Amino acid sequence: MFKHEKQLLNSVRVERPNPTYAMMLTEQLGGPQGEMKAAIQYMAQSFRIKDPAIKDLFMDIAAEELSHMEMVATTINLLNGHELDAQGVAAGQIESHVLTGLNPALTNASGYLWTAAYVNVTGDLAADLLSNIAAEQRAKVVYEYLHRQIADKYVRETIDFLLNREEAHNTLFRQAFNRIQGTGSTQDWGVDENARLYFDLSTPGKYFDIKNPQPPAFQNPDPGVKH
């Protein structure tokens, strides 16, 4: 069951309309690293999770990603302005003026429709968690790119909030990964001699080796250390 609260997770506003940037921000609405992808992916992955704590975590983060989607869509609405004006925007931004009536479209920044092909679900908790960690990291990078390309202080505040929430999700997924060591696809990690071989095919030079391979694990970041 889902319940919609009639307020945004965090308030959004803009200094002025900016249709070009509205289309850029659409990347995080319907793009492969965007909020809809994250929400659907984590929800879909949760359906067969048996660990109640991790299932709860996936659903909590999925629900929050839907809230992020609402924030991004609201910001796009404000950036698009309130009047249809296809003549006043560049060629790459006319779709919302001639097709969706300024309604934010579920596309990436180039206008390609959102697709379920963006969603990764394997049924193996370790694989899905690693996919989610990577997804949060990629979303953070896109938000960083978007932050650099807008001077609107209110849009930057929204991006700052969303970027830091992606970081929180990343940390939570890492904690969950540490909890499942020795299960699923991590259970028989590195038992074969082939798991200890490194093929040095870029000669000269050998900078890595795996004589004593260790299963992947994550340390929680120290909040007192700045990188």
Automatic annotation (TrEMBL):
Positions that bind Ca(2+): 56, 60, 202
Cofactor note (record): Binds 2 manganese ions per subunit. Binds 1 Ca(2+) ion per subunit.
Annotated binding of Mn(2+), by residue: 35, 65, 68, 136, 169
Keyword presence, Cytoplasm: no
Pfam families: Mn_catalase (PF05067)
Keyword line: Calcium, Manganese, Metal-binding
Family label: Belongs to the manganese catalase family.
Entry protein name: Mn-containing catalase
